[in-house]
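Consider the tokenized backbone below.
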């Protein structure tokens, strides 16, 4: 049911016109952008086939459809009761993060962000004339953890927004309720609007759960914009469909006083129909995919200590992303550049997640197991030969 994902070979993947497989020269194995090398759920395929069969490409009559599907999904998956009237369809979560920063802060104001972080969040701050307040996470020897007290020691009076990635990209953390309650107290203490990116919420491994940040309390809901999509978990990023959920109608009204609705655009009919099909009927497929991802993750965690001595990986609790600490290798150049040049493996360069992370790289393990083994094998050989 999982689209014969394990049977996809490199030649087939290269035949796809995707950025993942065409950014680098053909002798490079890509393991960078958060895009899975698998198929899609049968329900998604059926929805798109129906559109094609009916040649249904006119102006779409889909008002309220995506918001209703979002509400059903949040209730069934996370036990979170949401109001579809506060769910706003958008085409892109990067657009949602930019517009949220612009709606709830002014140029010169500060935005708190945990680092390392998904690079577009830094762009949403810097490109709009806001100031980045870097709140660095810490490796406690077992996992990457928040360090909110470092900000508390010297708060910025012009801090207005917290961008919070949950589950966290690139570290793969799935935060506990206790940690989320600390984040809620932090946001309340400093009176911050929170943009909570929960796009990876469906990719969870045994022992981890996802608790929507806005579900913690009415106060937290009143200050939280949850942004999410089916694109990561159901492998449909090119269809450009997402949701901004405002915890209260007042928060939504405040947003639209600053941001004209037309600036947000809207998802196309393919994205809406595919997302509804994924959320309503794609869960069995997703469970098979997560099992494949878990097998890849577990193999990676077992293999790295001997195959890549000097590279540290904390067990990802969520996502299909591995945050590799290569600092012990003392490469003398950014880790991503080293593996690109010497191993012909394309990773995300660590410094794009924060300037101090050049000794790190992010590896996407959402690929057929034989390809993942080739990727690690090339990296291991590059380390041996240096």
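A designed sequence for it:
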């Amino acid at each position: 049911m999982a689209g014969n994902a394990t049977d996809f070979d490199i030649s087939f993947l290269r035949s796809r016109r995707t950025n993942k497989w065409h950014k680098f020269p053909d002798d490079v194995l890509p393991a960078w952008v958060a895009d899975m090398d698998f198929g899609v759920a049968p329900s998604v395929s059926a929805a798109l086939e129906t559109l094609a069969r009916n040649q249904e490409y006119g102006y779409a009559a889909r008002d309220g459809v995506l918001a209703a599907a979002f509400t059903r999904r949040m209730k069934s998956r996370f036990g979170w009761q949401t109001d579809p009237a506060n769910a706003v369809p958008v085409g892109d979560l990067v657009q949602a993060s930019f517009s949220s920063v612009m709606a709830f802060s002014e140029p010169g104001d500060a935005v708190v962000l945990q680092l390392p972080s998904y690079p577009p969040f830094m762009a949403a701050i810097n490109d709009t004339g806001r100031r980045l307040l870097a709140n660095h996470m810490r490796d406690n020897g077992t996992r990457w953890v928040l360090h909110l007290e470092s900000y508390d020691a010297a708060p910025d009076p012009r801090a207005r927004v917290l961008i919070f990635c949950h589950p966290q990209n690139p570290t793969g953390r799935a935060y506990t309720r206790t940690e989320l309650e600390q984040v809620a107290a932090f946001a309340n203490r400093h009176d911050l609007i929170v943009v909570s990116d929960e796009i990876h919420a469906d990719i969870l491994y045994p022992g981890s759960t996802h608790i929507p940040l806005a579900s913690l309390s009415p106060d937290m809901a009143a200050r939280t914009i949850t942004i999410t999509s089916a694109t990561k978990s159901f492998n449909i990023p090119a269809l450009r469909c997402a949701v901004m959920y405002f915890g209260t109608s007042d928060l939504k009204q405040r947003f639209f006083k600053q941001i004209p609705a037309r600036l947000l655009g809207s998802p196309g009919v393919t994205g809406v129909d595919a997302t509804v099909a994924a959320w309503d009927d794609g869960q069995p497929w997703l469970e098979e995919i997560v099992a494949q991802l878990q097998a890849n993750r577990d193999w990676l965690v077992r293999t790295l200590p001997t195959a890549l001595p000097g590279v540290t990986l904390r067990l990802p609790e969520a996502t299909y992303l591995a945050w590799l600490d290569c600092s012990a290798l003392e490469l003398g150049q950014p880790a991503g550049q080293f593996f690109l040049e010497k191993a012909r493996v394309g990773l995300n360069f660590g410094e794009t997640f924060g300037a101090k992370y050049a000794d790190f790289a992010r590896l996407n393990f959402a690929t057929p197991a034989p390809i993942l083994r080739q990727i690690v094998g090339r990296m291991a050989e590059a380390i041996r030969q240096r």
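The chain has a mean pLDDT of 96.
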